[in-house]
Amino acid sequence: MACIICMLFACITSKGQTQEIDLSGEWGFQTDFMDFRRGSLDVRYMHRLQETITLPGITDDYQIGYKSPYRHLDRLTRLYEYMGPAWYQREIAIPKEWKGKRIFLYFERTHWLSSVYVGKQEISKIDYVSVPHNHELTEFVKPGKTELITFCIDNRYQYDTHKWDHAHSEFTQINWNGVLGEIKLVAVDPVYIDDMQIYPNIADNSVKVKMQINNCTRKPFDGTLSFHITGTDYDLATDVPVSGNDTVEVIEQTIRLGKKITLWDEFQPNLYKMECKLKTTAAGQNFEFAKEATFGMREVTASKDHILINGHPVHLRGTVENAVFPQTGYAPVDDASWERILNILKEYGMNHMRFHSWCPPAAAFRAADKLGVYLEVELPMWGKDAEPDEKRYDFFRREQKAILKEYGNHPSFILYCNGNEITGNFDFIEELTHTGRELDSRHLFSGSTARKRVNSDQFYITHQTNKGHMAIYEGRPYTDWDKNKELGIDVPVISHESGQRCVYPNYKEIEYYTGPVRARNFEVFRELLDKNHMLDQADDFFKASGALTVIEYKDVIEAQLRTDLAGGFQLLSINDFTGQGYAPVGILDPFWNSKGLVTPEKFRESCSPTVPLLRFEKRAFYVDEPFQAKAEVYNFGPAVLKNAKLKWFVTDMSGRTLASGKLKTQTIQNYGVFPVGEFGFDFSKVTGPQRLKVHFTINDKLSNDWDIWVYPHQQELMQSTGDVLYTTVYDDKAKQYLEQGKKVVLCPMPNRVKGRKSTFHNHFWNPIMFKWPPMTIGCLIHNTQPVFADFITDNHTDWQWWDILENAKVIEMANAPQELRPFIQVIDSYDNNEKLGIGFEAKVKNGQLLVLAVDTKKNIDKRPATRQLLKSIDSYVKSDKFNPQIQVDESFINSFLIK
Q1: How many Å apart are CA 102 and CA 187, to the nearest integer?
Q2: At residue 390, does pLDDT exceed 60?
Q3: In a 3-state reduction of DSSP, which class is residue 665?
């Protein structure tokens, strides 16, 4: 089939003497699973392709490929899998007016190798992953003639690279085949600007323009470069003479911008557009070419501890972007999509995004430039990719240079790293890093995340320094801590992949998948939950585990902010990761939509340019203990806080203020973390167990708060009576009580309980990839049950549960009656979905039994929350409300106890 473009004026766009033909639309198409066409007669005789496809697009959009019957557990399921050569074809009339011009076929984004044929001759191959493919056709097409243009896209792995890197992986964006964004023919005059790089100098308000002019006339040329720089309330024009004799001329020109120029950063992302018109004469012919670029007056350097933007320290509050785009299967190439994503990022108080083992398309840089987001980009490199392999090495060398050339002008592009957790030949990694520094001074360079250092490192993304482990994955039951002693090395350190606290999946998201992939793994997990008779609890599991992850991330981020020697952090991640076993670690779903767990406003209280912070030693108190706090202000905002009014106050659950005070009014500098005073109060106004909220505000505008719990001393606990027996063993006496219709509270020592370790934290990353015990995702607390009448709790765990859960054992309850639900219900990993519990009640024989698998002896005087829980249980079991309805056979009790 031939798809012919008629050369109407409407089809051709011009800019100066450059002309373009938009080639989007219908193309001939044919698959080539066997990779045979290149060696067959099809090419030799220019056989027409027999199907059609619309470009831009990918094969998945047209259900081309192997229709997958599978339900992958470790990733989303691609509906139509295609990996191999695919052919695209059109007959294109080359305008006769293009005689003497250089002619290119341009693909904005493709995946991975593109090969172009004119007629029966292969004329160009390009295998970039991160940048556009621009094939020159000049010597192979004849203006005024209709040419058969065929190209092949081969999305197979062209080199032996790691299968997980996010440029190709089926784990996140799929390994798609097609062309995205602009697809066009471009004709330019034979003297043209091939490259234009703009190097700002903020010290003297100038830019150095480094330009490569290609002269294809084979004759000397001379002419004028006309620069026109515009921005908000800014306009500058200047002309520069230019001449040359060679086929490639490199020009450097410094342009003074004057005092009206403004700098670019996250708070004031001021952008300028440079338009350059090249007018030349060679051999009596006049030529014209225009090129433009957007830039910002931004300088990035580094001190010992921090990245410096325009000479001042910044603290990166970021997320890891893993190319998770399930709606399309590929990274968007339009500005609107990236502006949506980066606006959401900023709504949650962040200023930074790491592109993990991939480089995004130009639209991401344009959006980040506009919105003021600092980007770190990487090669498609991971793991073993630095092991010896010269072909692979050459690919990475070319890819690095192409990234710097294509995206180097963008002010948002501040950091470059070769890739993720690299192993192998670090001489090669040093070569790449050193080369990057030599090529482009507008970015900082690093060898690898979280692995061996190289000499040319200008920053380091890691979880471990030579001073110790410095990554922060989880919170603590106090806030007076940081990671400063692990830092203070020779370059700024950015915390690698912080957080990673797993949330139980939200099965309601299944219906959101309407693109090339489906969440069939969710279907498997949901069916397993249904098989284990807990499907009705799915939403509760999601919300309870999600609430704990929000609590953890608040503490993780605040610890990062208190660590004033850190260069920043990269959360893994603010949105869910769809591969490696599926990691629902985000407060946003894979589509960058809120899960409803926390609002942006609440999240920003502990993640924003200026954050009030408190350091205190614990969160659970006896009523006669004092509360003491050290106040700090994290201020990486644009301004000093002059005469800042600092207030603190304490409220109870009704909102009543119990205590309040002011710290000294003071000026707080920016670009650091500053102690601003201390305060304390007692709990004399507290009656009974209480959850209190401690607030700290700056100028009545910025506020942060922390929950603490206060308990009275419970002196007499676990006292047996004639009707109620407290015991740590299920012995004859316990059985006798039950036989007689009495009540038994069984609190076995955790080391005498079969089952799993208990922990406060949600599972790390996801339970399919990391099979680390105990494989649990928080707890669902049945807080409306009367057993909790005297113990304040939500339906999820919070910090008052710390000492309870860290001194407990998880009972596996698969063999319990299906209607029995533990009042402290531990949430199992979603690939197992077993019923688990720490506390439950049941009828046994003729009596009533309550089981609490918590250590009630170890340091019990220092565990006020555990004592209060025991008090609540005691009041409950000694009341007529304790009347369990579900009968349990004694064999089940024996099944989880160690004799």
Answers
A1: 5
A2: yes
A3: coil
